[in-house]
Every structure is written in structure tokens, then in C-alpha cells.
Amino acid sequence: MREVNLSKDAGKFLKKLPPKHRRQMAERILGLSENPLALDTGKLRGYDDYRRADIGEYRIIYRFSQAMVFVTLLGKRKDDEVYRKFKRSGK
């Protein structure tokens, strides 16, 4: 199992979620630490190192190495704002 590293923005977003959604997101992120290439994940278009995963109405943008999963950004799935934030962050 890989260690999980949440970015500052991802941590803030997670804290603002209702308890039920926060728990679901945390479980999904832990699942990614066990299997970052799960079948329901995909490469993020235009970024070779980054992947995306969906959980309900939310999207997780992350990358991983042998030892760690770096969760870069969390956001609403149907909202393009998550991608605008990702591009602005310069990742």
C-alpha cells in the first residue's frame, strides 16, 4: 500500500465536504493507494503523469509512484472549474 499525500487545496476541499461525502472520498483515495490503476480510473488528457478517478459527483486528480499517491486536486465532476484550477496550478 502506498502512502497518500494530499495537496493543500485537496485537503481544504475534503474538509468542506459533508461527513458522508468526506468518508466516501477518503475511502476512494485509500483504494487508490492500494490500486492506482483501477479499471475505473483514466489518464488525464494532455498530462502523461496524471490520472483521474470519479466518486459520485466528485473527481480526484492524482499521480503516483512506487511509494506514494499524490492527490493534487479534488472537485465537482460536472464542473470544468476543477480543470481550470489544475491548469492554473502549473502541474
In CATH terms, the superfamily is: RelE-like
Helix proportion = 25-40%
Major sheet characteristics: 5 strands, mixed
**Extended strand count:** 5
Radius of gyration using CA atoms only: 12 Å
Find the structural class using helix and strand composition: alpha+beta
Spatial strand sequence of the major β-sheet: 1-5-4-3-2
In CATH, the architecture is 2-Layer Sandwich
Number of helices: 3
Distance from N terminus to C terminus (CA atoms, Å) equals 25 Å
Describe this protein's structure.
The protein is of the alpha+beta class. It contains three helices and five strands. It has helices at residues 8-16, 19-34, 81-88; strands at residues 3-6, 41-44, 47-55, 58-64, 68-76. A five-stranded mixed sheet has the order 1-5-4-3-2, sandwiched between helices. The protein is globular. The mean pLDDT is 90.
Observed structural traits:
91 residues; alpha+beta; YaeB-like fold; five-stranded mixed β-sheet; 5 strands
